[in-house]
Design goal:
The protein is an alpha+beta fold. Helix content is about 50%, strand content about 25%. It has a four-stranded antiparallel sheet. A four-stranded antiparallel sheet has the order 2-7-4-5. A hairpin with a 2-residue loop joins strand 4 and strand 5. Helix 7 packs across helix 8.
Length: about 170
Amino acid sequence: MDNETELAVRSYFVEKRFKKNEFIIKEGLICTNVYFIQSGVVRRFCLEDGMEVTKWIYTDHQFITSLSSFFEQRPSFEIFQACEDTIVYSLSYADEQILLEYPLFSKFHVKQLRMYLSKINEFHHNFRLMSAHEKYIFLLKSFPEIIKRAKLKHIASLIGVSPETLSRIRTSII
């Protein structure tokens, strides 16, 4: 980025801190920020038939937001919660609109979105076809920080098994 764009980006991203278990994005409210995790763990989940179903677990150096809520400015159907004390850099929807006026930021933004959407599409296709054992191995190899830092019950929910079944899977791998 050129100096002008870099200065603008630095001025609009604001550091925020969330305590363990604090909600970052709440169901039913419009998500007005996109966040970059400097350090910490954040769980994305939905309530399905009164049960929390983990959709993903984010760790250091990942962007998080409720995509449809942020981009369409409509209420979120998902919840994001800090699983440990977490430091993020936050960009508001209004400030994103200002940054999009900078051609280099806009180009970067489109490139990032295209890559992110492509990876989400590929991930969901592959993850859906895997057994629970294969999902755990995939997470272990591709996202080891999730395995190291997330609660067992959240990982179990993510791969669609009970914590007891996940314990058996982990034991069979060791």
